[in-house]
Amino acid sequence: MMVADQERRLSRPPPDDFAPCLLPLGPFRAAVSDLIAEIENCDYDDAKCVEHVLGQRLDDEEFTTVLDATPDGWDTTVARLFFDVRNYEPIVRNATGGSLAALVRISLLAQIDAVWWGEARAYEEDSEVLDADDLVDLNELAACDELSFRYRNQATTLVARAARSAERRALPGRRPRTAGLLLPMAKPEVVGWLNDVAEEFAEVAPDGTPPLWVTSVARSIEHQRHLRALGYIALLPSAHCVGYAADIEMKWYRRFHAHRLLRGLLLDRQRSGEVNVIDEGQAWHVCLRPDMINDPRWMVTTHIGS
User: Are 213 and 280 found together in one domain?
Assistant: First the structure.
């Protein structure tokens, strides 16, 4: 649990255009873990049982402290969670193994992101992400050898999709099974943080382990809604839509016996107060904490606004 959060104090003022709330998160995370253990006693698709457990627990102080601080408040946030539970369809692209417990866990832990970044201005459309002056272009940074992690661009043409399908058949497991980045843009602080994690991972991973692989960075609300329509768990508000979240491939590293090391590395970063971490199955979601964004360690300035 995030004990460091309970004693950490702001060392820098937050951005002027919003005032993120930095709460002690250890009790909330512990309560989520206890709640999920209780929900796992329900049948995997028993929404009524899950709703009953939620109704008994979500007004506990450990939950209300965080849920009251979300942009929509406790009532709307909890109502949205109940709606998602009732309408959940366990399909492959949900990446939760068909589990209502996983849906609840991801949704609740995502409220930490919402407390931190839910009042920040989001990118409404894909074009806003591509034109944003406060984002950096990963393709340009990669071309200049300024990235320590890897990613792939999404195949957007029929020819590109066919070539990628042929590659998967010929060389299964060569790369993570992911669509890639539709919008290869990210906040410079996120890029700097990912570079730092990638360098640490490279130092501790077994020989032959590929570099850290990033599967998602900045998104627009438009794209988030598209993902939700496809069946993904794509929540709003989302820290992806303000640029301060990323998803890191996890499942693929089982092939290299490096997944446990990567998990531990990310959880250590959470315990130190740098990020919020959510296990989403194939990939793990990370969200940079607001008082980290002015840390000079994470600044990448090349090509900003290009």
Answer: yes
